[in-house]
Amino acid sequence: MTHVADFDQMTCPTPRSQYERVLLGHGSGGKLSADLIQRVFLAELGNEVLSSLEDSATLSLDSQTNLPNHRNSGPRIAFTTDSFVVKPLFFPGGDIGKLAVHGTVNDLAVAGATPLYLSAAFILEEGFAIESLQRIVVSMRQACDEAGVTLVTGDTKVVDRGKGDEVFITTTGIGLHAANRELSIRNARPGDQIIVSGTIGDHGMTIMSTREGIEFETALESDTAPLNDLTRVMLDACPSIRVMRDPTRGGVSSTLNELATASKVGISLDEASIPVRAEVHSACEMLGLDPMYVANEGKLIVVVPEQDCQSLLTVMKQHSRGRDAAVIGSVVADHTGMVVMRSLIGGQRVVTMLAGEQLPRIC
Predict the structure, then answer these.
(1) What single string gives the DSSP state of each residue in 99-116?
(2) 8 A C-beta contact, residue 103 and residue 363
(3) pLDDT digits (tens, 9 = 90+) for 301-335
(4) pLDDT of res. 1
(5) Rounded to whole angstroms, how far apart are CA atoms 277 and 241?
(6) pTM of the complete model beyond 0.85
(7) Alpha carbon of 97 to those of 7, 100, 143, 146, 258: distances in Å?
(8) PurM-like C-terminal domain: which residues (predicted)?
């Protein structure tokens, strides 16, 4: 059996990164995505804010000009953007419109900000049914109402028939940070505990099972949901929270690998503690997938000092969005930059970042 101490000496093969053309895997949220961001985007566009790779940018408002400036100490805003290309457009528990609102709201919420305003840009394919578009827009309005945000501006473009895939949506969000709140993926410290707010893999496996026509005795639904009320309750009860992230593309595995790398720590997980619905587990087994790599759209990962862990967990379980919350592991000083999991049978394995594209077009 390999011991944890030996993991620092281990290397795993990764996909060749110097591709001449874009692959589906470049949108996976895993290793290929990280390479594309570093090699192409940050190489030319990188700056102090963008290169931090947080879920949203934090900018201060200059008290004299009211212009954003990340260098001064005025009121701070959170600013984020995301695009949604899910297929099918409508799925159990949600649709692309609801997903677009929730995804952007949640990027602001896990940064510790209060989401306020959204924009939406639609790329429509010629021939797309107006009835379907109206259904999506109604869903977006309902999602905005639920999250307490207002969609204040937008844009629409139409591409030739066959040049798109019905509809793509890009949403951008602005939120307001509370004073003296500094959440960051670089904040994790050895001894901290890691909590997930609920069962993992629900969204990705709902999309995949819908495509494949897999049915279960109990309905499998996407977990897409706004998390800003949950994060508000969490931060009010536990101001010591160090990190919050929503494990969307690339799943819990990619999120924790990013955290371990950014904070220069190791992550130790207990597989038996990770909540997975029976239907999700069954679907993953049928399709040869690992729920650790499957996207979530209504869950979050939180890192908190050990002394505050149980009180925070209690608060989360009292909220409808966190009733299945569980402590799944801890931050350690060993195997820096790596995630190691104790398996159900007692062994240990390295949980690497998603290498390619496990589930295309899921968000």
Answers:
(1) HHHHHHHHHHHTTTEEEE
(2) yes
(3) 999 999 999 999 999 999 999 999 999 999 999 99
(4) 41
(5) 27
(6) yes
(7) 43, 5, 8, 13, 28
(8) 189-337
